[in-house]
Structure prediction request, 211 residues.
Amino acid sequence: MSAYSARTRIKFCGLTRHEDITLAAALGVDALGFVMWPKSARSITPALLEELAAQVPAFVTRVGLFVNQPAEFIEQCLPYLDLIQFHGDEPASFCQQFGRPWIKALRMRDDIDLHQAAADYSHAQALLLDAYRPGTPGGTGETFDWSRIPSTLEKPVILAGGLTIDNVALAVSQVMPYAVDVSGGIETTPGVKDADLMTSFVKHVALASVQ
Prediction:
């Protein structure tokens, strides 16, 4: 996995406020995630997505997170996104139809075969690996056993699931992922980011990346 990059990229997910976008961009965060799944506590409407996406500066990737949602709704959001994150049970054929780069989130259930998943989603830009909790597609705030990630995986890995300022440096040094994804670990309440946690998280990733 480390062959893809000497620097671990950072994605902040679940953005809902203008001030959080401003700070994330100032901190050099690589990607900002907008949750378009209405059952999430961090979900936003397409109207708010349009407003927030307009604030994101050049060279910061705008990512839309969807969970088993209709193609028509995804297409409605596409003008404001650079990358699509499929966080449900979407087959590769569904993910590929939008003419936009995409990543596939996988929950690390006991029986998952990551090599097979990489083959099944061969057109994905990366695989996002998240903790598994039955009935919950993501945002659990839980970690998983990082040693389960094979070092020979054919796709870049975005590591998610319970990352905080207390464990992200260890995660980066142990997994050497292409990127890390954080949401609850930098929040005071769902969708409301904490400036100090955001700043500290970026610093911890940066220090771990150069070691």
